[in-house]
Amino acid sequence: MADNWDDLRVFLGVARGQSLSAAGRILKIDPATVGRRVARLEHTIGTALFAKSPLGYELSAAGARLLPLAEQAEQTMGAASDLLGTQGLAGQDISGSIRIGAPDGCANFLLPQVCAQIVAQNPELDIQIVALPRVVNLSKREADMAITVSAPTAGRLTVQKLSDYKLHLAATPSYLQGRPELKSLADLSQHRMIGYIPDMIFDKELDYLGALGVERVPLASNSVSVQFNAIRQGAGLGIVHDFALPAAPELRRVLMSDISLTRSFYLVRHSSDRRLQRLNRFAERLVAGIRAEIARLETWCAQQDAPHA
Hints:
Elements: H1 2-17, H2 20-27, H3 31-45, E1 50-53, E2 56-59, H4 61-86, E3 96-102, H5 104-109, H6 111-121, E4 125-131, E5 145-148, E6 157-171, H7 173-176, E7 193-195, H8 208-211, E8 219-220, H9 224-232, E9 237-241, E10 252-254, E11 261-270, H10 277-305
Parallel strand pairs: 3-4, 3-5, 7-8, 7-9
Antiparallel strand pairs: 1-2, 5-11, 6-9, 6-10, 6-11
Helix pairs in contact: 1-2, 1-3, 1-4, 2-3, 6-10
């Protein structure tokens, strides 16, 4: 039975990665071995499971029929592993590897410290953070769970709101010095703006400058971290997460009465993963940690703006 499941696991890797090399990276085995295992499974079943195309390995009709059964087996094996792994541990420790996808702002300024706390409490746990300037594809198992800035409405997914967070316009004092005074939104036209590349905004919630009527972005990137560092270098004005500001205490928020944005983070998981207690326990700690970290960092921002006696 173990060999049969191992072959199904390889089948799932190829179905999701659409190539032997991608499946090898997912499974941490060499592509040649992946190919042999797929051939063995096809021989056992007596039919081809994939068709080679210019796009890679596409499921055959038989492969498409096998896919939901293989995914069901994956969930069953995961649940069994959870049960065996938690016996004698009172269900408290988390072990193994968990991959989480997130937009790079969250991945850079929240997840490192939150995940550091979780692994410190669970020494047998490996956490992999996938920082992408796009939506993580859970259906292809790019990650076990993902943080998003919009709640998805399609697919077999469970969605949990993590937390609201705030964003403001910010710049360095060196940039602001000697430039036109900022009194209202109309004054933005006299300043160099930093933001997203307009045609690479992957979620409407990230179109901050468009909502402010800004038509030109002289310095743009698809990465919020690149934008943040450009603002730190005094290159211009840009929208910054409040939770990122403690990492750059030299930055100053401006036009706060005119520009104060609120967005939300959501935790997205496969619906079938609700049976996996290991992922459930990790999700609980992740949610609590992110909420606490956003509150801590935004409180720091508020204290910096408070008048000093």
